[in-house]
Every structure is written in structure tokens, then in C-alpha cells.
Amino acid sequence: MDNICADIYKYRHIYESPFGILIEASNGRRLTGLWFEGQKYYPEKYMCSSKISDKLAIFEKTDRWLDEYFSGGIPDFMPPVYMQGTPFQMKVWEKLKNIKYGTTVTYGEIADSLAADMNKKKVSAQAVGGAVGHNPISIIVPCHRVVGKDGSLTGYAAGVKTKLSLLTLEMMNHSSSVE
After folding, report:
1. What tens digit of pLDDT does each residue of 57-78 get?
2. I need a surface site. Which of 24, 104, 110, 118 has the fewest CB within 10 A?
3. Do 92 and 28 fall into the same domain?
4. Which pTM does this prediction carry?
5. H helices of the chain, where?
6. Domain for residue 78, yes or no?
7. In terms of Cα–Cα distance, which of 101, 120, 98 is closest to 111?
8. Which one of 31, 143, 147, 167 is the catalytic residue?
9. Is 143 assigned a catalytic role?
């Protein structure tokens, strides 16, 4: 497992966002991680062996995506990503990719959707929350758009304040583009 992790996080790059430093990781071809500095579940022990690189095409493409996003635009492309997780995590992360800019869904709604997809009576919203929290590619795979059943801003690996900042950015730009 250590060699696999070292390979998927072979390169890293720093991006300065309005809400804090972002650390990008890549295997050389695809984006394999995007975390706020110091956030929960950051794979620190694997990153120490990675090489800092500003010249990889994947980092340039990711930076363009982030520049557009943080300037209030809605990027019309997604950098190629590679995500590694359990089969359940992968299903949850696929659901995250479908949450539209400027909208939110609840952990329960994702759980209900997964239950229907998997032909099960029920999937635990708490299990969904665990998978959402371990999403390795924040913002681009929008885990910040998942909220509690009452709309509360429960948990975010980079902190609830950062989650609120991201949602505020999207809501301001989403509502102004609709009118």
C-alpha cells in the first residue's frame, strides 16, 4: 500500500486560494488529490516523498479550473482525476461529481440515491458522511455541497468556516447568473 500511495502522490503543487493554501497531488498524468493545507485526512506521510512541480500539465489545468472557480466562474471542464478508495467510497464520490454548482444535497439524499442504485432498502447517511469526509479531491469533486438533513453545515475536512466560504461564493454567483 505504501508504494501505491507514493505513486499516486508522486508530484505535488501549491495553489494559493482566497480561502487558504491548496495542495495538489498527481501521479504525473491525473489529479490524485486536492486538499486545504492542514485539513483532516491529508495523507501527510505519503507527501514527504513527493516532488514539488509547477510544470506538470495536470497542475496547469487544475490551476486554470481553480482560477475560474475562485473568480466566480463555473468551469466547463474538469481536470482528469484518479481517485482511489473502497467500492463504497467510489460510489459516493461519483454522486458528489453530479452535485450542480450553487446547490446542496443532504447526506440522506445521497444515501437514498445509493440505496436505489444498489437495490437496497437503506444506506446509512452516516456511512455516506464518512466517505464524503475522505474525498481526496476537494472543491472539484464538491463535497462542500453536502449538508445535514436540516440544511446545517455539518462537518468539512477543511473546517466549517471554509465550507461556508465556498458555498457563499457559489450562492452569490449562482443567484446573480440566474437573474
Report:
1. 999 999 999 999 999 999 999 9
2. 118
3. no
4. 0.89
5. 2-8, 44-47, 57-70, 87-97, 107-117, 125-133, 160-178
6. no
7. 120
8. 143
9. yes
